[in-house]
Design brief:
Blueprint lengths: L4 E6 L1 H9 L10 E8 L1 E6 L2 E6 L2 E5 L5 E6 L6 E7 L5 H10 L5 E3 L4 H17 L6 H21 L6 H20 L6 H7 L4 H12 L3 H19 L4 H7 L5 H12 L3 H13 L1
């Protein structure tokens, strides 16, 4: 996508077309937000497939291997699809990574609150149809849209205490630094120093939010990228290990097998067979 921002509708006809010939799992260099008014979404992300019915919100961060297949429900499908480059709303993008790191899909309830999201999509689309599109207007509307989505998400979760809010900010900052450095052979101390805190405090924050240690999150991020490279490239296992900061191919293979339950080679073979079928 060459544009900074693009919004379009997926209707019944388009859903049937995509469902009949779904794309293979892929990643892209832009962020993608789906607002489901009618229909159903089959979503393959983080190597798991889930189905979600409207009304829903689904957000896919840049670089995540995924596949979305819109489907009719009760004969209907009506989904707003919004794509934008990270730099379009840079002050918000990394915050979104924190919010949606392990929860790409969000089921909502029909009513006034959800309708406000739809109205914002309609306003953004209308602006793109003007002879001269004002991106500053769209940028503001998109920011409001994510603010409202976050408000809806919070209704479905226990309210955060002040200390938890501070921890979420620190966790979001950690994810930002992790995205920039996970391929490097650096450990917990590196990230803690970048965040001006102790390794112990960073571990506490990660345990509170994801129930994982910093080391586990780093390895998980490496594992997801390893799976991505095994599926989407023809690179050798040794090349992938080196690219992800592992000095020894055998160590990488052992870590992969421990976390994924199978060797890198077996995973590549199984996933390719599954995608073909």
């Amino acid at each position: 996508m060459n544009k900074l921002f693009h919004i379009f509708k997926v209707d019944e006809e388009e859903a049937k077309k995509i469902s009949s010939q779904p794309d293979e799992p892929h990643n892209h260099e832009f962020e993608e937000l789906l607002i489901g008014i009618e229909g159903e979404l089959e979503h393959f992300i983080d190597f798991n497939t889930t189905k979600i019915q409207s009304p829903f919100v689904s957000f896919v961060t840049k670089g995540k291997l995924h596949r979305v297949v819109p489907k009719l429900h009760n004969g209907k499908c009506d989904i707003w699809a919004i794509r934008f480059k990270s730099e379009f709303i840079p002050e918000t993008t990394f915050q979104l990574y924190s919010f949606y790191h392990t929860q790409a899909n969000l089921e909502l309830e029909k009513g006034h609150c959800f309708q406000r999201l739809v109205t914002l999509c309609e306003m953004m689309y209308a602006e793109t149809q003007q002879d001269t599109t004002d991106l500053s207007i769209i940028r503001q509307l998109l920011g409001v849209l994510f603010t409202m989505i976050e408000a809806e998400r919070k209704k479905l979760e226990p309210q955060d205490e002040p200390i938890q809010k501070t921890q979420h900010i620190s966790f979001g900052n950690f994810l930002t630094i992790l995205e920039e450095n996970y391929r490097r052979p650096v450990g917990v101390e590196f990230y803690a120093e970048k965040l001006f805190m102790s390794s112990r405090n960073l571990n506490i924050i990660c345990q509170n939010i994801l129930a994982q240690s910093v080391s586990e999150i780093i390895e998980t991020r490496k594992l997801i990228e390893a799976k991505n490279l095994l599926i989407s490239t023809e690179k050798t296992i040794s090349e992938i290990a080196y690219e992800l900061g592992y000095n020894e191919n055998s160590y990488f293979s052992n870590v992969f097998k421990k976390k994924a339950g199978q060797s890198p080679g077996k995973f590549r073979e199984e996933m390719k067979n599954r995608l073909i079928s």
